[in-house]
Amino acid sequence: MIRLATVSPCYNEEDILRHSAERLTALFEDLIAKEKITPDSLMVFVNDGSRDHTWDIICQLHKENRHIRGINLARNVGHQNAIMAGMMTAKEWADAVVTIDADLQDDLQAVEKMVDAHAQGSEIVYGVKEQRTAVPLLKRISAEAFYRLQATMGVENIMNHADFRLMSRKALNILATYPEKNLYLRGLIPMMGLKSSKVDDTISERTAGTSKYTLSKMMGLALNGITSFSVKPLYAIVYLGVLFLFISLVIGINVLYAIITGTAVAGWSSLILSIWIVGGFLLISIGTVGIYIGKIYQEVKRRPLYHIIEILE
């Protein structure tokens, strides 16, 4: 048996929190009865600077349920940092930690499979989305494009895996040695090279509330993942620069030919078009380089990822 902890980041989840706690409690009781986890296993809810009554509910659930603990962050630090805060705190309390979103759209039955895989020697067990029919079509398409774009850019990740995973204390201790501030756990954890396995994860409908993971946040996460783990965009700029140089050479030859043959037409339309194309390319190039410089700027300041102001034990 292992002492298990689940870690769930919460941002404005007052509508679904009690229901999620009830479902997790039922899962715990089942696993305890099967003697797969210890009776003192726990579920940890991380309040990521919620603006509603999420923390008040966590405090009340802590009083009512012996399994529940809470972590209150000083401000909203984002999904990845909130997960990190929960994992780094819970690794001192448990033998293994399962991260799962508070809406519990991930398959709870997969948790038992994760525990079994861990018992067989896996230090990390990934929940891989088998079915996404409960997810809106646009989000499914964008998610698929998200994984494929990252693979193209050379980012090592697990296809159709988000942040539903089990990590042993050993894996968490190794993860704690990574000091980077631009967290992208989906790319960082596979880099650790520990023994891992996968379980199927069937996504279900949300029972209450709305998803806080908007398309814009998803795009931001994709950009962060690419720029934190790949320099291919910088090489792409170099290749585009060579292409533009070649196009400019072709245009120059064409202009020279028009002058020699006397077929040149007075006008500035083509000139303005060229300026817009080159100008756009330069702005994209400067912006891409700026993103990398900005990340270096953030890393060298060594600021903490989060501040915990209260822990319910």
Description:
With 313 residues, the protein is an alpha/beta fold. It is built from 10 helices and 8 strands. Helix 5 runs parallel beside helix 8 and helix 9 runs antiparallel to helix 10. It starts with a strand and ends with a strand. The mean pLDDT is 84.
Strand numbers in spatial order across the main sheet = 7-5-6-4-1-2-3-8
- What is the straight-line distance between the termini? 22 Å
User: What is the helix content?
Assistant: 40-55%
SS field, number of helical segments: 10
How many β-strand runs? 8
The pLDDT mean sits at: 84
Order of helices and strands: EHEHEHEHEHEHHEHHHE
Q: Stretches where pLDDT falls below 50 for ≥5 residues?
A: none
List the helices and strands and how they pair.
Elements: E1 4-10, H1 17-33, E2 42-47, H2 54-64, E3 68-73, H3 79-90, E4 96-99, H4 109-119, E5 124-131, H5 137-152, E6 161-168, H6 169-175, H7 185-188, E7 196-202, H8 215-229, H9 232-261, H10 269-301, E8 308-312
